[in-house]
Design a protein that fits this description.
The protein is an alpha/beta fold. It has 2 domains: 5-197, P-loop containing nucleotide triphosphate hydrolases (Rossmann fold); 202-296, no CATH class. The protein is built from 11 helices and 12 strands.
């Protein structure tokens, strides 16, 4: 880190030359990765430094929404005992949003606020740029010098060149859907390796949902993960994140109405969260009620 940078994490500020910059808040969330071991191994390898002068790589985590890309990044960052900073990418993210933003204080003075990316650069933490392929090329261009051997960004507004701490690490998550930008080649070449995440298998989904919703009734969990597994066979993008929300709401519905059967509670939750089309992946009510395990049988088909 440059000698003219002084970071005070307790005061959440940094002095860069003669300019004081307010730091972004750390992203504090519990993350327990229970998904693909290969994906976590690949991310650890990308961030591994094999010598003092070695630089960590800038991987991209690619997959459908809700498969756990951000959770994986946070979990591996915590293994490194690193501070984590989350930056949300959107279609209207500007280059200044990614670096330093000026704000007017009550005394009508200009104050500077560092983005989560720059904050992670200053403190030697991990920055997760979430849904990076929702950003335009113009925004990505402002990060090009950070993502190669130069490891710095320029703030035109503050008139600063900011070099990254040697322990700074970067990862971007990218949703695999149609509502995103195609990244230019010069940016793609800086965001490697690509690490792909797919839907978890039924046993893993059950463990994740049980961990997130520990009060969920066992038969309700059985019905839910079977529903998710069947929907995956028909290439529906219902994720374990959807499953967690469905589980929470279904259990609440059941708790408020003791006469409500588990299948009806689950179907009401699925209808509210995923919509009517998702109900075709359930067997008849009588079959679900009489034998919750029947929904895992191989001959089950959408109705």
């Amino acid at each position: 880190m440059s000698s003219n940078i002084i970071v005070d994490k307790e005061k959440e500020s940094a002095q860069i030359g003669n300019i004081n910059v307010k730091l972004a808040k750390e992203y504090e969330v519990n993350a327990n990765w229970m998904g693909n071991d290969l994906a976590s191994h690949q991310l650890r390898a990308a961030w591994l430094k094999l010598s003092e002068d070695d630089l960590p790589m800038n991987p991209r985590l690619v997959g459908k929404p809700g498969v756990g890309k951000t959770t994986l990044a946070v979990a591996v960052a915590k293994e490194l005992h690193s501070s984590v900073y989350l930056m949300q990418g959107t279609s209207d993210t500007r280059p200044d949003d990614l670096i330093i933003t000026p704000v007017i204080t009550e005394g009508k003075q200009i104050s500077y606020v560092a983005s989560p990316i720059v904050t992670a650069m200053l403190v030697g933490g991990v920055c997760i740029l979430d849904e990076g392929n929702r950003m335009s090329e113009k925004s990505w261009a402002s990060l090009a010098s950070l993502l190669d051997h130069r490891r710095y960004v320029d703030s035109v507004i503050a008139g600063l060149r900011i070099h990254a701490h040697k322990e700074f690490r970067f990862v971007t998550t990218m949703n695999d859907d149609s509502s995103v930008y195609d990244l230019p080649e010069y940016i793609q070449s800086r965001l490697n390796p690509q690490i792909f995440l797919d839907f978890a298998d039924i046993e893993t989904e059950a463990r994740i949902i049980r961990y997130a919703v520990p009060y969920l009734e066992e038969n309700l969990l059985t019905l839910l993960v079977s529903f998710l597994a069947i929907s995956h066979k028909y290439e529906e993008n219902y994720s374990v994140r959807d499953g967690i929300q469905i589980a929470k709401y279904a259990q609440r519905l059941k708790s408020l109405n003791k006469d409500l059967t588990l299948p009806k509670a689950l179907k009401a939750s699925v209808f509210s969260i995923l919509g009517e089309d998702a109900l075709k992946y359930f067997p008849p009510d009588e079959q679900m009620q009489n034998d919750p395990q029947s929904s895992t049988r191989p001959n089950l088909r959408p109705v």
